[in-house]
Amino acid sequence: MAKRNNLLIFILAIGAFGIINTEMGVIGILPYIADHFRISVSKAGLLVSLFALTVSICGPTMPLLFSGLNRKRAMLLVLGIFVLGNIVSIFTSNFTIAIIARVIPAIFHPIYFSAAFTMAANSVRKEESPKAVAKVLIGVSAGMVLGVPVASFLASAVSFQMAMLFFAIVTAIAFIATFVFFPSMPVKERLSYGSQLSVLKKPITWLAIIAVIFLNSAVFGVYSYLAEYLKTVTNISGKSISFMLVIFGGASIIGNIIAGKLLTKDAIKSVVSYPLALGIVYIILFLMGQFTVPMAIITLVWGILAGIGTNINQYWIMSSAPEAPDFANGLFLTSVNLGTTFGTAVGGLFISGMGTQYVVLVGLLSLILSVVFILLRNYMYSPTKQLSK
């Protein structure tokens, strides 16, 4: 039974890897997309921003609508749409069609992750669920780490279409593995839409959502400009920047593994101490960021904390609404995407107003605000009362 559960979680991680590949991999090939469609790089960036915006909007609604559907069918539907979207992107020469081929899969994106997190958590004992979810999130980190450099390499060495084919193949492998190895998974106790939406009446849910928006803003508001920071402040070469980004991504996978253990051992303590740890890293980054060796060490530690942060965000929202897991996971996806959008926008303002070095301030300010809402939730809802719900 344990072996079978491990296989299913591994397949869920491959599916997560394929979907995040499609989402994030495009970042590394924007110049090639611009050349292919004869448009500006900023216009090509719509393929990234519209995808993230669509996921934010559809995060709570789509998992809610599909919460009664057999989970295996729901995941096959999503993976199939992603494969088709990537195939359309390979053959189209029309940028509007390319955008549609990105936005439609993004609508269905939250269904897969919501189902994957719920299934991973349900496959083990309740106290072990953070570890199981962390394994699925490894696929997310791997997609971010490998998706960007692999797509970039394929686009530069062969063509833009080859990068899109890579996305399609990975997602197709996940589709086949899900079709072959997953049993039929009908939803035994279907929750009404009303009972799921009722979690929004609870203050604890909103305290968790706001904390997660700020926590993700703290990570991605700064990380979005890491390449720019390394170029202008640390002053290193393009190859060294690529290497640093790989270090960050690889470290985030380690962070996922550590997070599963930390949250299983003492979840509340882990959540409360996380902003403090990341804040210390950002202060050192601000003071030592111009030196290459300290910057490499900072990037490694920061990457580990970023991986831990993803798991903390998922746990923090999930534990505020355990009675509606699919909907809660949808709220998690919306919250982290809103956090990324907010952090990146504010980070851009700090850079244009004060200089690249000061992008760290968006991270520190977001962390201070996240602590307020974390402590408020802990004060209003004691951990024992919250976890016994």
Salient structural properties:
transmembrane helix, 16 helices, 389 residues, MFS_dom, 2 domains, 0% strand, Growth Hormone, Chain: A, MFS transporter, transport, globular, MFS_Efflux_Transporters, single chain, mainly alpha
List the secondary-structure elements in sequence, H or E.
HHHHHHHHHHHHHHHH
Strand-residue fraction?
under 5%
Structural class: mainly alpha
Can you name the CATH architecture of the largest domain? Up-down Bundle
Low-confidence stretches: 384-389
What CATH first level of the largest domain would be assigned? Answer: Mainly Alpha
Over the alpha carbons, how many angstroms does the gyration radius reach? 20 Å
User: Which range best describes the helical content: under 10%, 10-25%, 25-40%, 40-55%, 55-70% or over 70%?
Assistant: over 70%
CATH superfamily of the largest domain: MFS general substrate transporter like domains
CATH T-level fold name of the largest domain? Growth Hormone, Chain: A
The profile of the biggest β sheet is:
none
* Count of extended strands: 0
Distance between the termini: 28 Å
Please work out how many helical segments DSSP would assign.
16
Q: Give the CA-based shape.
A: globular
> If you average the pLDDT, what whole number results?
86
Number of self-contained structural domains: 2
Subcellular location: Cell membrane
Main location: membrane
Keywords: Cell membrane, Membrane, Transmembrane, Transmembrane helix, Transport
Pfam families: MFS_1 (PF07690)
